[in-house]
Design brief:
The complex is a heterodimer. Helix content of chain A is about 35%, strand content about 25%. Chain A is of the alpha+beta class. Chain A has one domain. In chain A, strands 1, 2, 3, 4, 5, 6 and 7 form a seven-stranded mixed sheet that branches. In chain A, a hairpin with a 6-residue loop joins strand 6 and strand 7. Chain B has one domain. The chains are: A alpha+beta, B alpha+beta.
Amino acid sequence: MKRNLHIALMVFGMVFLSGAAHAAEEWGLPEEKTARFEAKVVDVLCELSGDCPKACGGGKRQLGLLDGSGKLVLPVKNNVIFAGVADELIEFCGKQVIADGLFTTNRGYTIFALQFVKEAPDGKWQRANRFLPKWAKKNGVSADSPKAERWFENDPRVNALIAKDGKLGLGLKTDKEYLSKQ
Amino acid sequence: MQKGALFAIAALLSAAMAAPAVAATAERVKITGEVIDSWCYITEIMYAEGTAHHQCALWCAAGGVPVGILGDDGQVYMVLKLGQDDTSVANPAILRIQSHRVTVDGSLYDRDGIKYLVVNKVIDDSGIVKLTHEDYGIQPFGK
């Protein structure tokens, strides 16, 4: 119950309160630390293996933040519920940015949630929620529509898989049996 | 001739600037474990394994959150490539094996505390075997 409330508050915060001020907001994550740092946007696979398509793979690859000390930071989340950072960072491929967000450390891993980003040193701050308008455009709806706001429940790729395998992934019959008991 | 040489030098410099300074050495590995959503699992913002989290794991994978493999050794391996398809953002092939127990052959890069995996081949796919919904419900909204 407490955990569900926590998630609900976090979702609310991410969607509605992500702020006019361009400074990271706390989400209540484990060992959370707000951070603002300069880094180069890199294609992670390119950085590791030397396999480097042009333009960081055009948004099809996970992107990383290479800071001034040579440390590769993995940004896992953006400021949209259930979404990552590719749509937020792809336009900055190969460029220096100022990243603003949260580091969280748990289970032995430190990962980063990107909340705001701008080109260094004095670009315009952008909230890391451009996933939504891109998703909305791709799916023929308005970015401020209820459908886009709950994009995850309206995503045709996901819905096709759920229509086939169910929410539990075990088939529609198992879903029906389980959900009828709830 | 001099102009040609200048172009050649410029092209070399350009390539050198685009590519990483030092590409790391990969270790060939065989990993067995569950395909997971890395964000929910690492942060523990909710229970994030098996059937209870399957729907949410699909949402996150479609949203471009990195997909990982939670190895039987307890380590999380971030998947950067699957076979010849180097799409690691919302890759339909990765969505199709979300929450499955798999064994993969791959190349492992360990960098700054994160294990990154280039999957050469999925050797075995047992489907979804971790039945967790009876204990944890459907995460995170219960439906």
